[in-house]
Design goal:
The protein is α/β, with parallel strands linked by helices. The protein is 44% helix and 17% strand. It has a 5-stranded parallel β-sheet with strand order 5-4-3-10-11, sandwiched between helices. Bound molecules: adenosine monophosphate (AMP) and zinc ion. The site of adenosine monophosphate (AMP) has 17 residues, from helix 1 and strand 10.
Length: 466
């Protein structure tokens, strides 16, 4: 297995700390709003990484946090707590906001066939672990208190910014006007806020430094080390986490333990909306329920994500999503036909095994999903491979792709919007009433909408015109 490591900026052979086992931490959602489909692209990438490692024979321990406190609207300790802001705007309690959006997040994940991490840990359930880690940093001389807050001093370690390759001298001389005058170095960051920051903060806890709440970065260090130990294999997130969040996670974790914290840093590129990163703060974002409301299946979006490499930017458009939808439905239809011909073979022949090997190799080469999909389509179109062998190979591939191929049913394949399906039903009734003129009119209308009507033993279905 080969993986691109952001730390070395190169593709490396993956060697786990404990042979056969992988420890993997992924930064989870901040539950103050719905996840947008850009956020979900990152979780799909992490799910595909985990599935690929498992397919390669590793057992994976996957931990993800839920940020329900401490994440400010600005990355440099500026702005206000995202949860508090959402609560103020909606008139709900922060706890209700967290519960509501956590549920919404896991509904989206389930619809996208993202396997739930082995451990999902909420920041607010781990405040004592964070306090213990801050104490450890304090004992090691890495912190200072100013204006009631506890700060991490980046000058207390020799290699701050190594992940992002930040040039500290440039940062100092070119630093923008400092917002927090308590900071000795503009890149120092808060480990613990006391109520000196915001009066009326709803979520606060007692601590040796006064009643307050933790900074955002400390939660990931404290929880990952609690569940995976002080040295683990893989840490993932979106690329926007590199310059501040992951940089600060590394600084405080390695300052506390005095050793390397994580071996492989894996980052997913952005989903773009137009020419910019899709983002909640700039307003232009789309959620999964919005796509579903327009007649797309969540798995159309999963397929769309798989069609691009995780380290390349992917531009969202409804035209591109339409192509992904047509491709996925075409695939489901092929699988449904194969299922009518036979069962997946238990001992696939050489040709099918060859396709499986090519597929695995593409995925194990830094998750080459677009190449792996082209292997899949080559197999689908290869008339020399029998139905049972094809099915076996496709099911094997789907362990990583997660498209639910084994559930493909001819009649159950839903193509088109609710209105298209209503027309299809109307055509069925017209035919039953021997109103062939009307039936033909509807067939023509559906053709204009992009579908052929195909009569099958289990009823008429829509087939996208590709
Ligand atoms: P958040 O809930 O804001 O903490 O973000 C959750 C995850 O989504 C993080 O790993 C981000 O790096 C990632 N992310 C944010 N915006 C995008 C985007 N436009 N495309 C892909 N990933 C993103
Ligand atoms: Zn994190």
């Amino acid at each position: 297995m080969k993986l691109y490591n952001t730390m070395s900026r190169s593709i490396e052979e993956f060697v786990p700390i404990v042979p056969g086992h992988v420890s993997m931490y992924c930064c989870g959602p901040t539950v103050y709003n719905y996840a947008h489909i850009g956020n979900l692209r990152t979780y799909i990438f992490e799910d595909v990484l985990k599935r690929t490692l498992e397919n390669a024979g590793y057992s994976v321990k996957h931990v993800m946090n839920i940020t329900d406190v401490g994440h400010l609207t600005g990355d440099g300790d500026d702005g206000e707590d995202k949860m508090e802001k959402s609560a103020r705007e909606t008139g709900k309690s922060v706890w209700d906001i967290a519960e509501f959006y956590t549920k919404a997040f896991f509904r989206d994940e389930e619809a996208l066939h993202i396997i739930r991490p082995d451990i999902v840990c909420k920041a607010t359930d781990h405040i004592q672990d964070m306090i213990a880690l801050i104490k450890r940093l304090e004992e090691g001389g890495h912190t200072y208190t100013a204006g009631g807050n506890v700060y991490f001093s980046i000058d207390s370690i020799p290699d701050y910014g190594k992940l992002a390759r930040l040039n500290i001298d440039d940062l100092k001389s070119g630093a923008r006007i400092e917002i927090d005058s308590n900071k000795k170095n503009p890149k120092d960051f808060v480990l613990w806020f006391t109520n000196s920051k915001f009066a009326g903060q709803a979520m606060t806890w007692d601590s040796p430094w006064g009643r307050g709440y933790p900074g955002w970065h400390i939660e990931c260090s404290a929880m990952s080390m609690k569940y995976l130990g002080e040295h683990f294999d893989i840490h993932c997130g979106g690329i926007d986490a590199i310059p501040v969040h992951h940089t600060n996670e590394i600084a405080q974790s390695e300052a506390a333990t005095g050793k390397t914290w994580v071996n492989y840093w894996c980052h997913g590129e952005f989903l773009l909306m137009g020419n910019a990163k899709m983002s909640k703060s700039t307003g232009g974002f789309v959620t999964l329920p919005v796509l579903e409301g327009k007649g797309y299946n969540a798995l159309d979006y999963r397929y769309f994500c798989l069609s691009g490499h995780y380290r390349s930017q992917l531009r969202f458009s409804f035209e591109a999503l339409d192509s992904a939808k047509a491709a996925r439905q075409g695939l489901m239809d092929r699988v449904a036909s194969l299922k009518e011909e036979g069962k997946p073979s238990e001992n696939p022949g050489e040709a099918a095994l060859g396709y499986m090997k090519d597929f695995d190799e593409a995925m194990e080469n830094d998750l080459g999903a677009p190449q792996a999909l082209s292997v899949l389509w080559k197999l689908v179109k290869d008339s020399a491979v029998g139905a049972s062998d094809k099915l076996a190979a496709l099911y094997h591939m789907d362990k990583i792709l997660g498209l639910g191929l084994s559930e493909a049913e001819k009649a159950a394949v839903t193509v088109g919007t609710e209105e298209d399906l209503k027309l299809l039903q109307e055509r069925g009734e017209a035919k039953k009433n021997k109103d062939y003129k009307r039936a033909d009119e509807i067939r023509e209308e559906l053709r204009k909408r992009g579908f052929n009507v195909k009569d099958t033993p289990s009823g008429a279905i829509l087939e996208p015109i590709v």
